[in-house]
Design a protein that fits this description.
The protein has about 375 residues and is an all-alpha fold. It contains 16 helices and 3 strands.
């Protein structure tokens, strides 16, 4: 019973600290201090995990699932054998509750504080503002022209699709942010190679292209989809490693890093990534203008977009829908009121960057 009382104390303090975190989450200075204080730790953990060729995050997640299964079996057997069944059940449940609360408390500190602190827009001074559909069309046309110019610079398969070897893409990742860091020094970081996801096909079933794991600091990327957006996906997860927590801002930073890099594969992927977001937004506002711009794209670009569309059409399942809802809830819990819809807001940042004339230095 003494051990159980100690566990109760741990549960109480963990729950109290979680509640305190959420009560103080509106205090930006405190959240910034937590985010800045833990960022070096996450980056240090990432460099340690870099010595392993596999994703340590995936290993920990696998062990976690196995531990839960073992706990279920252990709990059922213990309760069936025990005379004081309710007490035994609570002992097992309290252990699980203590672990879950501890992990969630660490998640709040390692990741939640970044969501609540200063955003990329706060630190960079760049502000996303709604723009006219004419401006949207102009920027979409600009991206289309850059995309068309970049298309012949990357190797192509017999069917015209993007054919840069994955090893080359992952090798180039460590230098992809140099141009973006020159623009925004607070993004500076000594990068390590991102990790290939062993469970890539499973991730696709749940509509995930990659994830950042704050407990190890690793960026783990789904390698099963067509490779044309793999560089942009890598850059997105690496943005999270730099403390850019918002999904919309991480998408913008990914585009910026890619188009300013020295890698043809990353530049092409960045222009494609940005064009897809801009094109989707333009299509919903002015389909005729979108079609007129889309007709200017070479067949190679259409081959890549068709490959993406066909791949993801296979995973439009209930599991993907549930996964989206779970992730949407998590984003909202950290203050991103638009939830998953916040991904579309990257368009406003792309428009703002274009209107400041910054893309002229690239194109």
């Amino acid at each position: 019973m003494r051990a159980l009382r100690k566990r109760h104390v741990k549960i109480f303090f963990a729950a109290a600290l979680i509640l305190l975190f959420h009560l103080l989450s509106g205090q930006k200075k405190l959240m910034n201090a937590l985010a800045e204080g833990t960022l070096p730790l996450r980056q240090f953990l990432c460099r340690i995990c870099a010595v392993f060729p596999f994703s340590v995050a995936e290993v920990l997640c696998t062990l976690g699932v196995l531990a839960v299964l073992a706990w279920v079996i252990w709990t059922v057997v213990s309760v069936l054998r025990a005379k004081a069944k309710l007490l035994t059940l609570w002992k097992r449940l309290s252990l699980l509750l203590a672990v879950v609360l501890l992990l969630y408390l660490l998640l709040c500190i390692l990741l939640g504080a970044s969501y609540r602190g200063d955003s990329f827009q706060d630190r960079s001074g760049l502000r996303a503002q709604p723009q006219s559909v004419e401006t949207l069309g102009e920027v979409t046309a600009f991206f289309a022209s850059q995309l068309a110019a970049a298309a012949p610079t990357v190797p192509r398969a017999a069917d015209g699709t993007f054919a840069v070897p994955q090893k080359e893409i992952f090798d180039a990742a460590v230098d992809v942010y140099r141009g973006a860091e020159a623009r925004f020094p607070f993004l500076t970081l000594r990068d390590v190679r991102p990790k290939r996801a062993f469970y890539s096909r499973l991730m696709s079933h749940f509509n995930y292209t990659g994830f950042y794991f704050p407990y190890t600091g690793e960026a783990t990327v789904n390698i099963d989809p067509p490779d044309n957006l793999l560089p942009a996906t890598i850059a997105h997860e690496m943005a999270h490693q730099r403390g850019v927590s918002s999904e919309q801002e991480a998408n913008f930073v990914a585009v910026l890093a890619c188009v300013e890099s020295n890698s043809a594969a990353y530049r092409y992927s960045g222009w494609l990534f940005g064009f897809i977001y801009l094109g989707n937004a333009l299509f919903s506002r002015d389909a005729d203008t979108y079609y007129a711009i889309a007709e200017t794209l070479p067949p190679e670009v259409w081959a890549d977009m068709d490959a993406n569309r066909e791949y993801w059409a296979r995973f439009e399942t209930k599991a993907a829908e549930v996964s989206d809802k779970v992730y949407d809830t998590m984003l909202k819990s950290y203050g991103q009121s638009l939830g998953v819809q916040s991904y579309g807001a990257v368009v406003d940042l792309l428009l703002a960057w274009y209107l400041e004339g910054e893309f002229d230095r690239v194109g």
